[in-house]
Amino acid sequence: MTRVHLGLPAALMLLVSWPAEAQPDETHSVVGFRTRFGGRYDDVRMCVATSAGVKGGPAGDVAAFVELPLKQNLGLDLDLPVFRPVFFGASFDMLQFEPSASLRFRRITAGKVDPIAGPTLGVSLHYGPDYESTNRGAGRGPSFFAVGPIFGGYGGLDFKRPGKPSNVQLGVTAYVTPLFSVDDPADHRGIVIGGSLDASFRFALAPSR
User: Fold this and answer.
1) What domains sit in the chain, N to C, each tagged with a CATH number?
2) The model's pTM
């Protein structure tokens, strides 16, 4: 509790002292964190939120990201998942790690909201049992490594706050991931198809001087 009490004032001080001349728009580099929640069909990996034998289930994560401006209406978003890899590793002796990169095309408007859209590419890394396994106990199956590319797309709305150092972006991500096991006697392979609702909390970086 002490750490939480100390952390909240520190976070508030950070926001208050953030450079006002840096605004999260198409001209500044942006850092932040992203929460996502959705669901997926998955005929390869165990889902910790559903019973053994169920192919897929709900999926959520919290990620850190940085968005780099490439030109006036185009940015590169680099997404690094944090919550799911740590939680699955600590609680279920599993790895599900899916970093990605997205091109973000922005339609600049005169209003308070800019539409954003673009393709996503990433990689899915898995270590754990298959979907027929239970989380623990005698029903837990053998773990295996699997890897596959992520092909997806993003569409969202960027809520601009002129003169403010932070803003929020809401969007939807859809993706498909073929998975292939590595050095696995059972030769697991299959596909993941899913989508999520994303909320991105964005903080602009001031340009170097």
Assistant:
1) 31-204 (2.40.160.20)
2) 0.86
